[in-house]
Design brief:
By secondary structure, this protein is an alpha+beta fold. 36% of the residues lie in helices and 33% in strands. It has 2 domains: 1-43; 45-81, no CATH class. The chain has helices at 3-13, 23-43; strands at residues 47-51, 55-66, 69-80. Helix 1 crosses helix 2. The longest helix is centred in the middle third of the chain and has 21 residues, at 23-43.
Length: 89
């Protein structure tokens, strides 16, 4: 999913959220946020990284053997956060 597609989804679900911000600027902000999350996941050695509203990324180091060579690779699992129902007004 591209950043502009996320902007379109935001505009469909909450049209007032972005106000008069140009789509290109909103897409750049979203892309920067996703890059920051990616960087944090990459920097994590082991354990869980919780991202509010998104979910939990669990990182662990796994030893693999390929062609007689042992190497350590990082495995990342993701569990999505539960979506809270909006309160009736």
């Amino acid at each position: 999913m591209k950043s502009l597609e996320i902007v379109e989804r935001i505009k469909q679900t909450n049209p007032k959220l972005l106000g008069k911000m140009p789509d290109a600027k909103a897409a750049k902000i979203i892309a920067a946020a996703l890059r920051a999350v990616h960087k944090e996941i990459g920097a994590a050695e082991e354990g869980a990284l919780k991202v509010a509203g998104l979910g939990t990324f669990k990182t662990r180091q796994v030893e693999r053997e390929k062609d007689g060579q042992k190497s350590t690779v990082k495995k990342v699992g993701f569990t999505a956060a539960k979506i809270k129902a909006k309160a009736a007004k």
